Amino acid sequence: MIKPQTVIHIGANKTASTLLQRQLFSKKSHIQYFGEDCINYEYLKEDIHNMIHEDNFYFNKNFIISNSIKNTSSDITRIVFSNEDIMGSRHPSLAADRLKEIFPEAKILMVIRNQIDVFPSWYVNHGAYLKNVPKRFWRRYVSFDEWLEYCFNFPKISPVQAMNYLKYFQIFSKKFGEKNIIVIPYEDIFFDNSSFCNKLSELFDVESATIKNIFSKKNERSRNSKLNHEIHKFFGFSYKISNNIYKKISRFDNTGPFKISINSKWLKKINHEYAESNSELELKTGLNLKKYNYPHR
């Protein structure tokens, strides 16, 4: 019996991770998948959360996934663990340690995306909604500038660190070896589709045409529409009100995804934050990030 190849997909955020999880990992009988939308996820989710997010003081070592792997059927050629929250966890090195113990011979997949594009995308569906606050203020409207100000004032607990791709490359390289870290630009989906599909095809033992078909579908989590955003903004004092209003009129919404531009102040800040690390990642991987206008020195 040939031993299945293990792949740990760590993100990044806003790179079609949900699409892969729902349309590929959880749909193929030759893939034993651990992550959101997997079989028995309700049984596994607390342990997956603890593995990624908890400090050692609170962490209870779990053997649920390990025991499942031991019972892998002969039809399985790939074992896949997928969770984009790893890139953004406060304890990524601990997560890497724990994953190494469970999946010692894994390959690591990172799909990265130009940070200048990620911030607006992240804001529209997540950042515009106030979180981790008392219930009365939960999901109230936050402007783009306010959200960016918060992100850069608290970089270690905000999306700023989740987009430091070099950091995660170094953490997982230390545990799994650089040769086992596969970094693919998200932009290849649109500008070098054959190469993108071929890489995933080999990694997941799926025909390239199947990968291409999956990515030709609509996003699993599409960006909020312009109308949705404007209603949330207008009724920013109450998410419940804005959400109920939008539900009633959403079927008439043809405004399309909400688009927001980054002003020169924040462009400069984002470029300064990631130019050095992107350039170093480029050297380590041989990627050409300049062609997609990533922040670069």
What fraction of residues sit in β-strands? 5-15%
CATH topology of the domain at 5-113 and 162-221 and 276-292: Rossmann fold
Terminal Cα span:
49 Å
Elements, N to C (H/E): EHEHHEHEHHHHEHHHHHH
**What is the CATH architecture descriptor of the domain at 5-113 and 162-221 and 276-292?**
3-Layer(aba) Sandwich
Number of helices: 14
- Taking all Cα atoms into account, the compactness measure Rg is 20 Å
Name the CATH class of the domain at 5-113 and 162-221 and 276-292: Alpha Beta
Net shape: globular
Oligomer: single chain
Biggest sheet layout? 5 strands, parallel
Portion of residues within helices: 40-55%
| Strand runs, count | 5
Low-confidence stretches at least 5 residues in length (pLDDT < 50)?
Answer: none
Mean pLDDT: 93
The strand line-up of the biggest sheet is 2-3-1-4-5
CATH superfamily of the domain at 5-113 and 162-221 and 276-292: P-loop containing nucleotide triphosphate hydrolases
Structural class: alpha/beta
